[in-house]
Amino acid sequence: MISISGNAMNSWHEYGVESKDNLLTVNCCGYQKLLTRDLTRNREQGRMDYQLIYIVGGKGFFRFDNVTIEVPGGHIVIYPPGVSQYYSYYAKDFTEVYWIHFTGYAVHDYLTKFALLHPLIHSVGVMDEVISLYKKIIHELNMNKPLSESMTTAHFLALLTLLGRRLQNADGQHKLDLYTDINNIIEIMHERYNQNLTVADLAQTCSLSPFRFIHKFKAVTGTTPMKYMTGIRIDEAKKLLSETSLNVREVASIVGYENPLYFSRVFCKAVGIPPSRYKEQFL
Question: pTM for the complete prediction?
Answer without folding.
Answer: 0.59
